[in-house]
Amino acid sequence: MSVLSGKKVLLGISGGIAAYKTASLVRLFIKAGAHVQVIMTPASKDFVTPLTLSTLSKNPVHSTFFNQDEENEKWNNHVELGLWADLMVIAPATANTLSKMANGSCDNLLIATYLSAKCPVYFAPAMDLDMYIHPSTVASFKALKEFGNNIIPAESGELASGLSGEGRMAEPSTIIRFLEADLESKLPLKGKKILITAGPTYEAIDPVRFIGNHSSGKMGFDIAKSAANLGASVILVAGPTHFKVDHSLIKVINVVSAQEMYEACHQYFGEVDVAIAAAAVADYRPKNVATQKIKKAADNFVIELEKTKDILASLGDRKKNQFLIGFALETENEIENAKGKIQKKNLDLIVLNSLQDQGAGFGKSTNKVTFIDKDFNIEPMELKSKEAVADDILNKVIAKFNE
Ligand code: CTP
After folding, report:
1. Are the beta carbons of 202 and 162 closer than 8 angstroms?
2. Does residue 85's CB lie within 6 angstroms of at least one atom of ligand 1?
């Protein structure tokens, strides 16, 4: 999945011949899963039509401060557009537009939006070779870099003037690759390794029966996806679940029993920075597993159970620098029980679910959690989707690395 997936991209197009390539650029953004809104300078409409770009971006194209052609004349709010965007890309960026950006000459919607945008800004210059090296252009580049804007370097090659040299706008595919690489390098969990357990475990009684629980695995899978989207490499040790995940940064290890989960976790724990135990591990398993299907006979039937290993506590024992997060599912004395688990399992943070809270627990798409850290600071959270809870948990991890 591209790091651009779900991102809101504001594409500013200024008036150069390379504007014709923005049709492909918009296509590539959409293909990567981004949401695109286009702002055109008046001059750019001589090179590519707003209709083409609105069709490809699936959004109206913005160009003037007012939409005169609309029934109810509507103001294009540059502040709103600027705040909407996760990133702004100006391509092609002509010498004229770059100069206006550098000097704040706000005479069109694109520049007004640029000045309002709080998100990262990228620009892909496009001009003839002599314009590209003119001190005025070089001064614009310098100023824009000082503002924190990112230049997507122009390429060398044949130019519209017939001359050959540096100044050609980077190809759309190069622009996309540049943005992906830059965004990936800035992800907050880039370079971190996280072990996550998810789902239930099944403890065999005989070849066809088991003791299990109703955990769906959703919480652990949501944490894994969120961690990977933040740049972490994830090892997801999953008990039996119907959830699947396809992400280049997530390695799934499928297990069935608590013992298998224990072994998989210990195989990887030494190499990770963070471990998050979201699995609902069986606390007991049948002491003897029948090799053949058990036939019904007596009216009463007793299965002797023995304790499984506490995976999280065993990771707590082995812990060196790892940030260790556990879950606690409680029905009474929630805070006290959770605090006890922090100490017993040597945790840095516990995510407490109380079954007394509406919307929390197994099989639900929402969760209501309370964070308790190892110093017993208590932070109750709102009822949220499990995806949002996953983000909250990873914000705690990010905060830990920024300490
Ligand atoms: N856990 C684990 N291995 C086990 C049991 C639990 O790793 N054999 C982990 C869970 O993934 C969770 C945390 O321990 O992160 C708390 O699990 P919970 O069942 O609430 O606590 P227990 O320690 O099993 O205590 P109890 O069932 O008595 O509440």
Report:
1. no
2. no
